[in-house]
Amino acid sequence: MAIEASKSEHRAAKIRLGMVGGGQGAFIGAVHRMAARLDDHYDLVAGALSSTAEKSLASGRDLGLDPERCYSSFQEMADKESARPDGIEAVSIVTPNHVHFAAAKAFLEKGIHVICDKPLTSNLDDAKALKAVADKAKALFILTHNYTGYPMVRHARELVRAGELGDIRLVQMEYPQDWLAEPVEQTGSKQAAWRTDPAQSGVGGSTGDIGTHAYNLGSFISGLELDELAADVHTFVEGRRLDDNAHVMLRFKGGAKGLLWCSQVATGNENGLKVRIYGTKAGIEWTQADPNYLWFTRLGEPKQLITRGGAGANSAAARVTRIPSGHPEGYLEAFATIYSEAAAAIQAARTGAAVDPAVVYPTVDDGVKGVAFVTACIESGKKNGGWVKV
Q: HEC profile for the chain?
């Protein structure tokens, strides 16, 4: 993989990493730690891993951290780590959405690079304010829309950029799940409880949790900018305070049309993320359930199956491919690609060197667009599906 520092003459020193959130019982925190370890660019050395000092210390001990670097709050961590000669260079923020803004702001203002889970923030005002902070900071901001790290997604993006699809006409995105088909938030499920709580999640339920992923993926591959949308947003589970299903029509700048469906009550679906893009010359189709394959069809020709690491895979896919074709490479590897792209940018920032133009990761600007998308969906839903400018 071209982003592996081990292929360079001298491997850069590992990046000292901290983590906010992700303590005992947290799903996404463990995923981030695995992703950071996979290509061996980071050392996790500090954490404010939980909302209480006791839980943070216990979680840190589980991970082998120095107890003196297990903090009771992200602010304490930002203050003390920035004052240490061996303090963290980057922080991974893996908390519920409502904490993202304050935590990211605290570290950016200390000059510490931020790697933040999506969505960017729980509301649009905070998203715009965080962008202003990030734009002024002497630190990088990376948003972990991890699905952009798949090799075949990178291949698809380059096909569009090279004009192989022609002018884009249609973008279809879907992300159905069924894990919230019943009110599991009322049964003690930690993951469900915060995702269905407006105070922690923000205004969007399924739109914010998975709709943002589908929207980001379609935008990343197509390169299109959203102009306006009309959304039928609904909550099927009685008593739930946020949406669990949405059908969204999209109008992109330049005339392309889109359709997005996100659902957490679609019985029989686990993580059915899929994107289809159709242009005047060709179409493509990719699904996360079978991520090593991309269907590419030129108008009037047979469907072509392009495989990760196989014949026909382009250089954009090859540089984030770790193992030979035919071996499954999936979710954790795609997540790790975002961390490795971030590492390349952080290591360049250490010396003031230019970042390789091939390095790609979601930014604070992508985050603002995602929160704007969710906000517009909810606004449109309140207008019975009326069109809303984004």
A: CCCCHHHCCCCCCCEEEEEECCCCCCHHHHHHHHHHHHCCCEEEEEEECCCCHHHHHHHHHHCCCCHHHECCCHHHHHHHHHHCCCCCCEEEECCCHHHHHHHHHHHHCCCCEEEECCCCCCCHHHHHHHHHHHHHCCCCEEECCHHHHCHHHHHHHHHHHCCCCCCEEEEEEEEECCCCCCCHHHCCCHHHHHHCCHHHHCCCCHHHHHHHHHHHHHHHHHCCCEEEEEEEEECCCCCCCCCCEEEEEEEECCCCEEEEEEECCCCCCCCCCEEEEEECCEEEEEECCCCCEEEEEECCCCCEEEECCCCCCCHHHHCCCCCCCCCCCCHHHHHHHHHHHHHHHHHHHHHCCCCCCCCCCCCHHHHHHHHHHHHHHHHHHHCCCCCEEC
